[in-house]
């Protein structure tokens, strides 16, 4: 049976180590081929993301810096992504990024995986 994230290369922008580890394991459990964690925006080059990853999970704040510009770059490059955050101003996100899922923290793994799969055009198999 195919898994939701089968073979996908996923970038995880998350500065909380334990959460990042959980998300990585979650993605792998659902078949992701490669999971790369970046805890700081300086670790990722927006230009390279488009060629190296199939999807991204983006925390809205990374080390106190907003990731919205980075997310705009992902969108421009055509990389599907979801926001995962404890930050609650969903209206601003919906206005700036219509159609991009915002998975609130603390999130259930299932919600996050479904959101990423949906962003990549893979319908839920459940």
UniProtKB/TrEMBL annotation:
Task: State any GO BP term from the record.
Answer: phosphorelay signal transduction system
| Start and end residues of each Response regulatory domain | 9-120
Ordered alphabetically, the record's keywords are:
Phosphoprotein
Q: SMART domains, alphabetically?
A: REC (SM00448)
Under Gene3D superfamilies, the record lists: 3.40.50.2300
The domain of life is Bacteria
Give all 4-aspartylphosphate modified positions. 59
Record's protein name:
CheY-like chemotaxis protein
Q: Tell me what organism the protein belongs to.
A: Rhizobium loti
């Amino acid at each position: 049976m195919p898994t939701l994230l089968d073979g996908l290369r996923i970038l995880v922008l998350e500065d909380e180590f334990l959460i990042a580890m959980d998300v990585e394991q979650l993605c792998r459990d659902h078949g992701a081929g490669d999971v790369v964690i970046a805890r700081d925006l300086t670790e990722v080059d927006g230009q390279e993301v488009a060629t190296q990853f199939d999807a991204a999970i983006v925390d809205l704040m990374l080390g106190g810096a907003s990731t919205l510009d980075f997310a705009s770059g992902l969108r421009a490059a055509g990389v599907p992504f979801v926001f995962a955050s404890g930050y609650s101003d969903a209206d601003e996100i919906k206005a700036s990024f219509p159609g991009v899922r915002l998975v609130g923290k603390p999130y259930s793994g299932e919600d996050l995986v479904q959101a990423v799969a949906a962003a990549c055009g893979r319908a839920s198999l459940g």
